[in-house]
């Protein structure tokens, strides 16, 4: 063609233009658009660009875009980029800047991506311009997204990516200006090392891929690619629609929705962009991005395959599914697969299986594709539906996917309960969490317990992330291919294909969320297998409790009579001792509580049945000190206060008074006595009564009966004695065991000896007294009575006294033994009758003796025992001694 | 407000708690009177807030059962005897619901438990006819006394001496520092034939000892001479159960429950029965205690009742 004269051209166009050189109006813009389509020379293109720049009428521009100007400009843009003409790029970017853009437009072709990429360019003007444009468009996209919510726009992604890019660019700027793309990619890779930057890189890559796409379109083989792109968009839309329509069968956390909606718009978009881009680079992922990638990175072989596959794909377009794209890719890539490694395939297969399963179960579409694709391609790799692994292999022949990536793949599909929190921009955290859960998805599927939720997620974030993290090493390689130049040349693409062993995630949009509920055996038992018997028991128990409490409460009329108020402090209390002042343990526990967590129970169900067991602590067992019952160091009776008689007062009303102390040890008694004692002990009151009534008319009976009447009678009987002044307290002695003896003693007429005080008693002539030890209690005294044990009667008589006083064997014996002995025998023969009269008078002295002995302890005149030490010859306490010193601090005996 | 006959007569139930399904077998006020801990036959421990008149905390001890609970000096610890498994005494931290230490040794049911008012010693008496002296810091028994019957024991309010009731007829006083040398005083009392001593308490002023029984009598004796001062009778104890008797903080009054749900109050000086409260306790009132610092009385059968004086100062 002859060189074009710009002036000529302008003149020719003059009719269409305003005086400023802009397009006159919508009608003219159509024509201009038509003309532009023909413009292939730089000169004419420049003129048209200038015209557009000069156009101020929005209508005209809109019309221009409508009529295909958008695509034309895109074409030019990519061309300009290819020839790397900064001036031209600047100019065209200025045009872009002023164009009234809509989100749909942005979606229409790769212009946005290209411009984004330009943001990285080393030319300062271009960079600024492109970033400005990107920002402007991002705004629009955001607005739209906010309005639509779920719409996934690449432009959005571009926005985020642009932002990230800017950062990167800055970094790059700081670096040397070496403008080889490899350098850029390196920079990117460096940036990618930092987690936050990873996503950015991905985005960049995506943009690159977009650019590539644009170019691809231009190249002859690109028709195929274009088709693929269309499929993608269609698929995406359909998927999203599907997702929307499908009601979620699984309970979702409320936060989940939010995150998918608003948060995703903000956060996910970036990821998605990343994903889609990376996915395009890595054919392993099943989605459209991958489709796009093949053209870029893959050799024409792939393209040709894709061409071959186009027919099927176009058919599939109608029913786009997650799996189908992968299959396509697989088919496309199948040719290279021969080089692929089996291992990787296997690993990825798990993930793919899951995806395909999920998709197959729910979406018939994917199935079709799979089937069709294999048939179309006739590839050896493409096999029945579950050949998903194969696709990955072909796509990732060069770079073996790390196990982590594999798991990561599985992750996205896995439902993560914590995703809500994790999703916040932290790709890495997501990955990790997903990795942990990766095994579960398979289980779920198998058990069919899983309910799946299709989440409307924009292009695979996960894929992008995974790519970033895992492909750090590969970044240089993989990114290079992305760049347009490499893509265009077949040779380079081949090399790249070989190198690529990329594992990519499914597009975000096609990811599904599975909620996996781990099977808890115990829970199962509790919830589902209700044991009937157990239930029955439980119910019975509950009923019983209810009844019991009802019973309790029916009798429980207790009511609060006054309202509660803070109890006043009691005044006038003596200042008490400091409670726990010497406690060491108190402090130990206080310190312990500082470091031990308090146990809190918010309701009674939380209460453990029992407190926790104590910590084991080493200890050396040691024997406790023996606590003696008697004070062995000082005199035995030194500090003994005897108050038995006081009780007798009380007892008069209801009980017979206790008689004596127990000092005698029955074991030391002669056998006869022991027998007697035991018989006494065994005697029961009823028996006593019978005997007494039989034998003694009143006295003895009264003692047994303890009735007041009897008591009075006894008193009468005793009166004479008391009159004698010998037994001052006799009256007070109700019916102690002493009662018995007295009469008997009296009978015996042994009064004189009886006069002798306690100790004296021993020497007492009376028969029983012979050997008596000072205290009278010892066995020696008893021997005499021994013989006495003549008949049961005697025993019974005896019992009247002693028994009444005490139930104890030892005590009565003493009492009885002391004095009874002698009287005993005589008594028995004769009935009581005589006893009554006579005994009383005669024996008074004796009585006293008895009184002292026993009574000495229990009721003696002073209510005190005779001081042992005094009796022995001298008490060092003298008058202060609390024991009786007969004749000194008490009445003489 | 001071405790007078009139005040005592005007005590009324101000709170009724039905936290337990079984008899409350023991209760103990904290030294500052702010909380009350109770143990029940339903194996639960309930702690009440005496200021606000509310239950404060509940703990279970279903494994070992709980009886004879009493606070130790640390704010959040208590000592209790067991009703199940064995007759070990257990030292419980209420703070983290964990046992701190066990005190094994008794082979039959523990029927007396008394914490020293000033240091870490405590006394326990059991139906195995032994009385043991312990230290909270060691699970080793510190002192052991063999008796011939059911023991009762109590520390005096100054924590210098402890009293042991022996065979329901004899009180022996021991110096805590030299208990191994035997009692420094012995009070011989007439033996109660038809009942056993089931409890013993020093009056807060240390001058009297109140001896409760499982019969229809409660005895008050002089803490220095053992002289019987008063005998409180006339309340009902038809079941032969042990009814707690306790002093008011000023030692002026003695309170005893009864099996017919009434509360009796005597003046310790005069022996005059000051009041009989009919408060509709549905069961035998086995636990009666007066708050050591506040004008508040706690009585318990299955229900727990808090009493307040119904008059202003």
TrEMBL record, chain A:
InterPro entries: TFIIS/CRSP70_N_sub, TFIIS/LEDGF_dom_sf, TFIIS_N, Znf-CCCH_4, Znf_CCCH, Znf_CCCH_sf. One of its GO terms (cellular component) is nucleus. Component of the PNUTS-PP1 complex (also named PTW/PP1 complex), composed of PPP1R10/PNUTS, TOX4, WDR82, and PPP1CA (or PPP1CB or PPP1CC). Residues 151-500, 608-669, 760-779, 821-862 are annotated as: Disordered. PROSITE patterns: TFIIS_N, ZF_C3H1. GO terms for molecular function: protein phosphatase 1 binding; zinc ion binding. Residues 391-403, 764-779, 822-833 have a biased composition (Pro residues). Residues 246-255 have a biased composition (Basic residues). Residues 455-464 have a biased composition (Acidic residues). Keywords: Chromosome, Isopeptide bond, Metal-binding, Methylation, Nucleus, Phosphoprotein, Ubl conjugation, Zinc, Zinc-finger. Residues 304-326, 381-390, 485-494 have a biased composition (Low complexity). This is Serine/threonine-protein phosphatase 1 regulatory subunit 10. It is found in: Chromosome; Nucleus. PANTHER family: SERINE/THREONINE-PROTEIN PHOSPHATASE 1 REGULATORY SUBUNIT 10-RELATED (PTHR46557), SERINE_THREONINE-PROTEIN PHOSPHATASE 1 REGULATORY SUBUNIT 10 (PTHR46557:SF1). It comes from the Eukaryota.
TrEMBL record, chain B:
Pfam families: WD40. The keyword Plastid does not apply. Gene3D superfamilies: YVTN repeat-like/Quinoprotein amine dehydrogenase (2.130.10.10). GO terms for molecular function: chromatin binding. Keywords: Nucleus, Repeat, Transcription, Transcription regulation, Transcription termination, WD repeat. It comes from the Eukaryota. It is found in: Nucleus. WD repeats lie at residues 17-58, 103-144, 246-276. The keyword Nucleus applies. One of its GO terms (biological process) is DNA-templated transcription termination. GO terms for cellular component: Set1C/COMPASS complex. Belongs to the WD repeat SWD2 family. This is WDR82.
């Amino acid at each position: 063609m002859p060189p074009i004269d710009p002036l000529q051209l302008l003149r020719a166009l003059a009719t269409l233009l305003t005086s400023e050189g802009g397009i006159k109006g919508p009608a003219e813009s159509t024509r201009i658009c038509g003309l532009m389509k023909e413009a292939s020379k730089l000169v004419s293109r420049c003129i048209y660009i200038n015209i557009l720049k000069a156009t101020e009428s929005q209508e005209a521009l809109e019309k221009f875009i409508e009529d295909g100007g958008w695509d034309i400009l895109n074409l030019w843009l990519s061309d300009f980029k290819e020839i790397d003409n900064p001036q031209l790029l600047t100019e065209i970017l200025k045009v872009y800047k002023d164009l009234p853009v809509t989100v749909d437009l942005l979606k229409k072709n790769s212009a946005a991506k290209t411009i984004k990429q330009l943001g990285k360019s080393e030319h300062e003007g271009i960079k600024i311009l492109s970033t400005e444009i990107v920002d402007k468009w991002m705004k629009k996209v955001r607005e739209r997204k906010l309005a639509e919510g779920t719409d996934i726009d690449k432009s959005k992604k571009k926005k985020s990516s642009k932002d990230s890019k800017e950062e990167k660019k800055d970094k790059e700027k700081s670096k040397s200006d070496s403008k080889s793309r490899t350098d850029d990619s390196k920079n990117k890779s460096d940036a990618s090392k930092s987690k936050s930057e990873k996503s950015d890189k991905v985005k960049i890559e995506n943009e690159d891929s977009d650019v590539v796409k644009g170019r691809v379109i231009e190249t002859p083989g690109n028709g195929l690619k274009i088709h693929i792109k269309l499929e993608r968009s269609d698929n995406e839309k359909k998927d999203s629609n599907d997702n929307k329509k499908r009601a979620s069968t699984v309970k979702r956390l409320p936060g989940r929705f939010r995150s998918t909606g608003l948060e995703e718009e903000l956060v996910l978009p970036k990821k998605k962009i990343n994903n889609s881009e990376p996915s395009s680079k890595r054919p392993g992922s099943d989605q459209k991005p991958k489709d796009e990638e093949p053209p870029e990175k893959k050799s024409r072989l792939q393209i040709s395959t894709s061409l071959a596959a186009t027919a099927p794909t176009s058919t599939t377009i109608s029913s786009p599914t997650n799996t189908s794209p992968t299959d396509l890719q697989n088919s496309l890539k199948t040719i290279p697969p021969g080089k692929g490694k089996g291992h990787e395939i296997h690993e990825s297969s798990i993930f793919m299986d899951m995806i395909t399963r999920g998709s197959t179960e729910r979406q018939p579409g994917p199935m079709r594709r799979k089937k069709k694709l294999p048939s179309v391609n006739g590839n050896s790799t493409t096999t029945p539906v579950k050949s998903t692994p194969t696709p990955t292999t072909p796509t990732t022949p060069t770079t073996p996917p790390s196990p982590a990536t594999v798991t990561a793949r599985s992750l996205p599909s896995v439902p993560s309960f914590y995703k809500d929190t994790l999703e916040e921009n932290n790709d890495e955290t997501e990955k990790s969490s997903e990795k942990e859960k990766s095994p579960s998805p398979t289980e779920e599927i198998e058990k069919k317990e899983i309910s799946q939720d299709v989440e409307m997620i924009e292009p695979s974030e996960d894929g992008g992330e995974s790519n970033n993290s895992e492909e750090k090493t590969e970044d240089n390689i993989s990114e290079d291919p992305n760049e347009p130049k490499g893509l265009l040349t077949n040779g380079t693409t081949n090399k790249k294909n070989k190198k690529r062993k990329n594992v990519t995630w499914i597009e975000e949009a096609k990811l599904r969320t599975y909620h996996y509920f781990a099977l808890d055996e115990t829970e199962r038992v509790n919830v589902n297998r209700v044991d009937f018997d157990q239930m029955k028991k439980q119910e019975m128990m509950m009923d019983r409790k209810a009844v019991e409490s009802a019973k309790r409460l029916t009798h429980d009329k207790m009511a609060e009579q006054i309202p509660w108020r803070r109890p006043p402090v009691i005044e006038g209390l003596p200042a008490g001792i400091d409670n726990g002042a010497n406690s060491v343990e108190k402090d130990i526990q206080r310190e312990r509580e500082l470091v031990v967590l308090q146990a809190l129970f918010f309701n009674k169900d939380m209460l453990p049945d029992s407190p926790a067991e104590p910590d084991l602590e080493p200890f050396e067992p040691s024997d406790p000190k023996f606590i003696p019952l008697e004070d062995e160091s000082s005199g035995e009776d030194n500090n003994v206060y005897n108050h038995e008689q006081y009780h007798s007062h009380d007892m008069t009303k209801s009980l017979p008074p206790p008689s004596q102390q127990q000092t005698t040890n029955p074991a030391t008694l002669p056998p006869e006595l022991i027998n007697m004692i035991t018989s006494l002990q065994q005697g029961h009151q009823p028996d006593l009564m019978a005997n007494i009534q039989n034998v003694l008319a009143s006295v003895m009976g009264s003692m047994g009966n303890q009735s007041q009447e009897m008591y009075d009678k006894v008193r009468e009987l005793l009166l004479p004695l008391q009159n004698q002044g010998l037994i001052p307290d006799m009256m007070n002695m109700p019916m102690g065991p002493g009662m018995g003896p007295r009469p008997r003693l009296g009978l015996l007429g042994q009064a004189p000896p009886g006069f002798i005080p306690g100790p004296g008693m021993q020497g007492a002539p009376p028969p029983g007294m012979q050997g008596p030890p000072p205290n009278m209690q010892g066995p020696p005294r008893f021997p005499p009575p021994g013989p006495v044990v003549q008949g049961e009667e005697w025993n019974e008589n005896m019992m009247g006294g002693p028994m009444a006083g005490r139930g104890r064997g030892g005590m009565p014996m003493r009492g009885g033994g002391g004095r009874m002995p002698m009287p005993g025998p005589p008594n028995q023969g004769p009935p009581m009758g005589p006893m009554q009269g006579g005994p009383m008078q005669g024996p008074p002295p004796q009585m006293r003796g008895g009184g002292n002995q026993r009574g000495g302890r229990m009721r003696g005149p002073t209510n005190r025992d005779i001081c042992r030490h005094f009796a022995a010859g001298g008490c060092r306490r003298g008058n202060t001694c609390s024991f009786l010193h007969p004749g000194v601090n008490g009445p003489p005996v | 407000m001071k405790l007078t006959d009139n005040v005592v007569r005007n005590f009324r139930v101000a709170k009724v708690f039905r936290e337990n399904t079984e008899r409350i077998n023991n209760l103990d006020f904290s030294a500052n009177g702010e909380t009350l801990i109770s143990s029940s036959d339903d194996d639960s421990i309930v702690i009440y807030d005496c200021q606000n008149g509310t239950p404060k905390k509940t703990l279970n001890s279903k494994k070992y059962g709980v009886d004879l609970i009493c606070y130790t000096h640390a704010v959040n610890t208590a000592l209790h005897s067991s009703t199940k498994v064995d007759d070990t005494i257990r030292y419980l931290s209420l703070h983290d619901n964990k046992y701190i230490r066990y005190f094994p040794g008794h082979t039959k049911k523990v029927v007396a438990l008394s914490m020293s008012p000033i240091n870490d010693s405590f006394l326990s008496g059991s139906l195995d006819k032994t009385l043991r002296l312990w230290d909270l810091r060691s699970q080793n028994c510190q002192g052991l006394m063999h008796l011939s019957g059911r023991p009762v024991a109590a520390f005096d309010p100054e924590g210098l001496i402890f009293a042991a009731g022996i065979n329901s007829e004899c009180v022996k006083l021991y110096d805590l520092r030299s208990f191994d040398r035997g009692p420094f005083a012995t009070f011989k009392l007439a033996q109660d034939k038809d009942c056993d001593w089931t409890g013993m308490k020093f009056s807060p002023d240390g001058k009297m000892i109140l001896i409760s029984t499982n019969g229809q009598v409660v005895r008050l004796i002089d803490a220095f001479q053992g002289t019987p001062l008063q005998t409180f009778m006339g309340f009902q104890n038809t079941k032969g159960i042990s009814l707690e008797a306790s002093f008011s903080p000023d030692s002026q009054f003695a309170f005893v429950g009864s099996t017919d749900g009434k509360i009796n109050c005597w003046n310790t000086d005069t022996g005059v029965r000051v009041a009989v409260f009919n408060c509709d306790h549905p069961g035998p009132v086995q636990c009666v205690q007066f708050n050591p610092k506040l004008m508040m009385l706690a009585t318990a059968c299955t229900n727990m009742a808090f009493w307040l004086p119904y008059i202003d100062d």
